[in-house]
Design goal:
278 residues, 6 strands, Rossmann fold
């Protein structure tokens, strides 16, 4: 799920907003880290434009579910309207349904959108009633100066929007991204069909927290791939009662941790089936 974030313009990431489209081009060429790890995990990678601030109609293979050209700047008001949030969630449910109808028995979350760890930190603060200092991490490896900006942006977003603590749809509308909304829908869609979803890193876990807030029963169909370096990740996993398969200090996102966890599970299953068998 790919979507841009209005707050990226403040320099909350080590990379400019234009990198979102550059990464999508890499996915379509099959050369990004996410592609390599997906191949080694024997999984298929699909790219969905749910809110990219660019015209991707010329990119063959990109699924168009665009709700808007990026979210609004949440330091000035809500990131999206309720109608937009619901539309993005419904798009995620539709993607899940179509994958399941094709025979896939495991869904994997993956996202791309410069600035998304800032929205994730804001979601974690609002859903768990935590100060930004307890949820804002270094994301793409930002320096101390950018960390100050990132904390300020999250604090301003919380102050301006006054999200209702624990109200998932309200939090999503005010502070989230279309990537979060689409992944939340995908998780809900899988749970409705009794198909599990492998949750990737901190951004995907924020989406899982939103999904759980909307449909608590979906947590029974979540698998946690790994524990990332981001400080909000462990707190959100605790709320969801999820336990990571891998703890390798990863911070890339894009479904890479989920791919690694699948390889670990495939290896474990191979041992179970084949070790000491005559």
């Amino acid at each position: 799920m790919c979507g841009d974030h209005g707050i990226a313009k403040y320099g909350v990431s080590a990379y400019p907003p234009e990198v979102t489209i550059q990464m999508i081009n890499g996915y379509m060429r099959g050369t990004a880290g996410a592609n390599v790890m997906a191949r080694h995990a024997n999984t298929d990678l699909f790219v969905v434009d749910i809110g990219v601030n660019a015209d991707l109609s010329n990119l063959k293979g990109v699924r168009n579910e665009k709700v808007a050209w990026g979210t609004e700047d949440f330091t000035k008001g809500p990131a999206m309207t309720k109608e937009q949030a619901i539309k993005a969630i419904q798009a995620g449910i539709k993607v899940a349904d179509e994958c399941i109808d094709k025979g896939y028995n495991l869904l994997v979350t993956a996202e791309m959108g410069i600035g998304n760890t800032t929205s994730t930190a804001a979601i974690a603060s609002a859903m768990l009633d935590l100060e930004p200092g307890l949820t804002v991490g270094r994301g793409t490896g930002i320096n101390d100066e950018r960390m100050k900006i990132k904390r300020r942006v999250v604090a301003e977003g919380l102050a301006v929007n006054s999200p209702i603590t624990g109200d998932a749809l309200d939090v999503l509308c005010k502070l989230g991204g279309y990537d979060h909304a689409g992944l939340a829908g995908m998780i809900i869609g899988g749970a409705r069909r009794r198909v599990p979803t492998m949750i990737d890193g901190v951004n995907a876990t924020a989406a899982a927290l939103i999904a759980w807030g909307i449909y608590p029963g979906c947590s029974e169909y979540m698998l946690c791939s790994h524990l990332s370096e981001e400080i909000a990740h462990k707190k959100m996993l605790s709320q969801l009662n999820l336990h990571p398969i891998v703890d390798a200090g990863m911070r890339l996102g894009e479904g890479t941790g989920a791919s690694l966890a699948i390889v670990v599970l495939q290896t474990a299953l191979g041992l179970y089936k084949e070790m000491n068998k005559q």
